[in-house]
From TrEMBL:
Residues 30-149 form the PurM-like N-terminal domain. The lineage of its organism: Bacteria, Bacillati, Bacillota, Bacilli, Bacillales. This is Thiamine-monophosphate kinase. ATP binds at Y113, G130, D131, R157, S249. It catalyses: thiamine phosphate + ATP = thiamine diphosphate + ADP. NCBIfam families: thiL. Its EC number is 2.7.4.16. Pathway: Cofactor biosynthesis; thiamine diphosphate biosynthesis; thiamine diphosphate from thiamine phosphate: step 1/1.
Length: 376
């Protein structure tokens, strides 16, 4: 099967003409370049383009122990969609570049495209082209996504101001727990995250871990099939009170530091208000891991971390709740910065819920770390 036959095999007939027209596609896959017009939206007024690209490399981002081919395709597109959401935008089009080694036969790559197109269908993204090459050893998948946002309304990292509330659109740490579980299962209870050079390396003594096995599917799903917070981002951005946004790709701590540095502020997170998945916490307990390690430094959750006017935070939370979407108010923005602090109720926890007369929260500096390809 030559290059062009493979492209047709992987892409032909995947998306409806209605979806393509809705995203302004004039000419899609099959020529030297795609042709798109600005997607029709009579209510949006003038729009600006958003552009994002992410690359997934076999043995760096995935392997057979952690991901099925369908999951790779889904996640590669979802990571880009999350970047568009983090700007308050709407994802529109995707360009897919894949470098394929001999070990990846066409049917296996087609399964990867199955997952990618499933994600595209879920979020209304038109796949309009890309590139296909051979690779000497490992599969490399790079996806570029376009999006749109109302002119002048893109939400940046640099807008947080003292007094803002800090919020998240979901629980962090689940994807890291899911990766740990998959690696532990593949290794028969040994190796863990240390095999990829990250995390604690702790592994459960038994597999599946007795206390957490009922919730294991949710953790694996969080790692393999993340769900970007596009709808929540659009609803929040429409309120006009969100001052910064970032998606949690490299860890909650890393993203908080990015906002803090870009805005010149301190992000103060309250440990007691950080959302925790029950299945993640139970699994961490079985593994002898502090759940906070995965929450702060795990990454790849693709929930949103942001700041907004404190006076509007509760109303925004109520609006999202009515739509069935989570939002957690997890801290506040302070003037002196940049930095990220964690406010811990250690006395409260140790006293079983009873605060002594001398009670005061403990403030700790949050390490500036998360996933970094070059160890910086």
């Amino acid at each position: 099967m030559d290059e062009f036959a493979r492209i047709r095999y992987w892409n032909e007939g995947r998306q409806s003409q209605l979806l393509l027209e809705r995203q302004g596609v004039v000419l899609g896959i099959g020529d030297d370049a795609a042709v798109v017009g600005m997607p029709p939206d009579k209510d949006a007024g003038r729009l600006e383009w958003l552009l994002a690209v992410d690359t997934m490399v076999e043995t760096v981002h995935f392997n057979d122990a952690t991901m099925e081919p369908e999951d790779i395709g889904w996640k590669a597109l979802a990571a880009n969609i999350s970047d568009i959401a983090a700007m308050g935008g709407v994802p529109r089009h995707a360009l897919v570049s894949v470098s394929v080694p001999k070990a990846w036969e066409p049917a296996r790559v087609r399964r990867l495209y199955d997952g990618l197109y499933a994600c595209a269908e879920r979020y209304g993204v038109a796949v309009i082209g890309g590139d296909t090459t051979s690779s000497p050893l490992h599969l490399v998948l790079a996806v570029t996504v376009t999006g749109t946002v109302e002119a002048g309304k893109a939400v940046r990292r640099a807008g947080a101001v003292p007094g803002d509330a800090v919020f998240a659109t979901g629980a962090a740490g689940m994807a890291a727990a899911g990766l740990h579980a998959l690696l532990a299962a593949a290794a028969g209870g040994s190796g863990g995250l240390a095999a990829l050079g990250g995390g604690t390396g702790a592994t459960p003594p038994l597999w599946p871990p007795p206390a957490a096995k009922g919730g294991m599917a949710a953790l694996v799903q969080a790692h393999r099939r993340p769900a970007p917070s596009v709808r929540a981002a659009r609803m929040l951005a429409a309120r006009g009170t969100v001052t910064s946004l970032n998606d949690v790709s490299d860890g909650l701590a890393s993203e908080a530091w990015e906002i803090a540095e870009a805005s010149g502020v301190t992000i103060a997170l309250r440990e007691s208000d950080l959302p925790r998945s029950g299945s993640m916490t139970a699994y961490a307990h079985d593994c002898g891991v502090d759940p906070l390690e995965w929450i702060l430094y795990g990454g790849e959750d693709y929930v949103l971390l942001g700041t907004m006017a404190a006076a509007d935070a509760q109303a925004a939370k109520a609006e999202l709740a009515e739509a069935g979407l989570p939002m957690y108010i997890i801290g506040e923005v302070e003037a002196v910065g940049p930095g990220v602090d964690l406010i811990r109720d250690l006395d409260h926890v140790q006293a079983g819920g009873r605060r002594g007369a001398g009670y005061s929260p403990v403030r700790e500096k949050v390490a500036k770390r998360g996933y970094n390809h070059f160890g910086g």
